[in-house]
Amino acid sequence: MIDLTLGHYSPEVAGHAPRAVRPSTEYGPPLGLDALRSTIAAVNGVDVSSVAITAGASGGLLATLVARRPTSHLLLPRPWFPGYVGISRALGIPTTTYDVDDRAGANLIDVAARNGATTALWNMPHNPSGRHELPGERDQIEQLIDNGAFIIEDLAYDPVALDPRIVQHAAETPTHLVVGSMSKSLALAGERIGYVIGHPETVTSVATSSWSVLMSVSVVAQQVAFQTLVDDQAGVHSEARRLHRQEAARLAQLALGSIAPDPADAPYFIWLKFPGARLSSTDLAVACSERGVRVSAGDVFGESAPSIRLSLVSATLTDIKVGTGLVGAVLGEVGLLTER
């Protein structure tokens, strides 16, 4: 069975294996190990006081919302990463959604104005669609922050070295916080290790909430992340993974035709949406599974139209070639793929 559901790099794809470290049974500092925080701060050009370590990006989001405790609706992208809804429900935070289409930034501004919402989540590259931020949307996000909104940016799929404009703005602005993941960027999914970058006061508040809810982030996981980050300072593995995604997308285009994304974008996912189709998202996912390839059903991400998501990061190129071919065969059989 070929698995195209998981959105993390396997060691085989990642091109490296974490080095062994000395186990520790002690609690770590609430903000995280100094060596790891300092390294993340250095590669992003911010002060170490602007960085805290979290239990994955999801742990960072949980701690942020515990610290923030929105009193109005939390604005979520739709379709969404399922963890957003799960965390919001667990904390009893009401949510409203904005559509992630070709005008996602404008949609966010419009929905925020209509609902009087003061806290929003912005996720690019977007999971599940793989959409990247478009020109002009950075200005829209900063405009929303200037107008009083608190923006949480989920950049889990970006490298640890983030866009300087984003991290500098976050480090200087108490109402702008970046949530990142080393589970994805360093292929350490099992270690559950992430970080936040923001204004020192905001970061300290998030770290305090993280400690109150989760206690210390695994010290061993932090040591593994530090060593892996140091080993990859030249970005060799990050570049190799980008090339992997490009080749995976090229193979997907051969199997799926024009409905597959442009390989030049090095997409993380393929998001296939079929409005008006008679089959449901679950029907499509089950049909693919019966042919030997697992894909994610779109309704898991809050998408009402029949849709499926294929990950291009967790499988080998050989499996992606075979797997996307099987998906193409299924779509062809049900009349949803007419050209390749």
Protein described:
It is a single chain. With 340 residues, the chain is an alpha/beta fold. It has helices spanning 11-14, 34-44, 56-68, 82-91, 104-115, 137-146, 164-172, 182-185, 200-214, 219-231, 236-256, 281-291, 317-333; strands spanning 2-3, 51-54, 74-78, 95-99, 119-123, 150-154, 176-181, 194-197, 269-273, 293-294, 296-297, 307-311. It folds into two domains: 2-8 and 236-333, Aspartate Aminotransferase, domain 1; 21-231, 3-Layer(aba) Sandwich (Aspartate Aminotransferase, domain 2). It is 44% helix and 15% strand. The strands form three sheets. The chain has a seven-stranded mixed β-sheet, with helices on both faces. The chain has a three-stranded antiparallel β-sheet with strand order 9-12-11. A two-stranded parallel ribbon has the order 1-10. The protein starts with a strand and ends in a 7-residue tail after the last helix.
List keywords for this structure.
340 residues, alpha/beta, Aspartate Aminotransferase, domain 1, Aspartate Aminotransferase, domain 2, 7-stranded mixed β-sheet, 3-stranded antiparallel β-sheet, 13 helices, globular
Helices, by number, come to 13
- Per CATH, the class of the largest domain reads Alpha Beta
How many separate structural domains?
Answer: 2
Alpha-beta content class: alpha/beta
Beta-strand portion reads 5-15%
Distance between the termini: 24 Å
Task: Supply the CATH architecture of the largest domain.
Answer: 3-Layer(aba) Sandwich
Sheet with most strands: 7 strands, mixed
In CATH, the homologous superfamily of the largest domain goes by the name: Type I PLP-dependent aspartate aminotransferase-like (Major domain)
Order of strands, widest sheet: 2-8-7-6-5-3-4
**Low-pLDDT runs:** none
H-E order: EHHEHEHEHEHEHEHEHHHEHEEEH
- Summed over residues and divided by their number, the pLDDT gives a mean of 91
The CATH topology of the largest domain:
Aspartate Aminotransferase, domain 2
Report the principal-axis shape.
Answer: globular
| Helix proportion | 40-55%
Gyration radius, rounded: 20 Å
